[in-house]
């Protein structure tokens, strides 16, 4: 199986590519375009170390790619940038989401990172459009944090009605087991950034 074939495994599920330009060996924008060409259902721009102006520049370049292919762009962590760029969605952590005003949520699709079924249930009650639950497996992004396993995903999916996207250490060797759960899809970072 070639690297790009991971996207062919998704069936009716979704694969969201989460960016991290520090993991890319060649050109960051080329990596994003490859993922979109191979079949990514959405791109989440997660470049938390960038200042607003830098994020806007990278965001505009990324949005040119995603718009060109009709793929939704989600901004992680910067609501203002998401509004300014008129992206499809905004993604944030559970605590930040709890402090958002309902009017702030606007017409954007809002996603929330959760680490327990309790957080997932509360996020749904507060108006989240989807949750991203993890980490499913051990990941180099969260060194020392044990994976919660695929049963964790089904546990959350059984308690809420909005989509659950699995994240954390998902790659070619385990994505089929993740897509076999009640998750609506999977988010991939390290694997995607090295295609």
From TrEMBL:
Listed pathway(s): Cofactor biosynthesis; thiamine diphosphate biosynthesis
Thiamine phosphate synthase/TenI domain segment(s): 16-190
InterPro entries assigned: Aldolase_TIM (IPR013785), ThiamineP_synth_sf (IPR036206), ThiamineP_synth_TenI (IPR022998)
GO molecular function: thiamine-phosphate diphosphorylase activity
Keyword Nucleotide-binding: no
GO cellular component, one term: cytoplasm
A Pfam short name: TMP-TENI
Keywords: Thiamine biosynthesis, Transferase
SUPFAM superfamilies referenced in this protein's UniProt entry, alphabetically: Thiamin phosphate synthase
Protein origin, superkingdom: Bacteria
CDD domains (alphabetical): TMP_TenI
Enzyme Commission designation: 2.5.1.3
GO biological process, one term: thiamine biosynthetic process
PANTHER family for the chain: THIAMINE-PHOSPHATE PYROPHOSPHORYLASE (PTHR20857), THIAMINE-PHOSPHATE SYNTHASE (PTHR20857:SF15)
Protein name: Thiamin-phosphate pyrophosphorylase
Organism: Clostridium tyrobutyricum DIVETGP
């Amino acid at each position: 199986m070639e690297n790009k074939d991971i996207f062919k495994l998704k069936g009716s599920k979704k694969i969201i590519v989460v960016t991290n330009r520090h993991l890319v060996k060649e050109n960051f924008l080329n990596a994003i375009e490859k993922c979109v060409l191979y079949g990514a259902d959405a791109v989440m721009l997660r470049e938390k170390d960038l200042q607003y102006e830098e994020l806007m520049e990278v965001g505009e370049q990324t949005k040119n790619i995603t718009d060109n292919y009709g793929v939704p762009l989600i901004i992680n962590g910067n609501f203002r940038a998401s509004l300014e760029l008129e992206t499809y969605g905004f993604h944030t952590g559970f605590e930040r989401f709890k402090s958002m005003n309902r009017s702030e949520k606007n017409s954007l699709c809002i996603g929330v990172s959760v680490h327990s079924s309790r957080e997932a249930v509360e996020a749904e009650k507060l108006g989240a459009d989807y949750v991203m639950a993890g980490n499913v497996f051990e990941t180099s992004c969260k060194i020392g944090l044990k994976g919660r396993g695929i049963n964790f995903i089904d546990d959350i999916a059984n308690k809420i009605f909005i989509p659950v996207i699995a994240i954390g250490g998902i790659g070619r060797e385990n994505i089929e087991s993740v897509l076999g759960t009640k998750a609506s899809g999977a988010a991939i970072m390290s694997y995607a950034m090295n295609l």
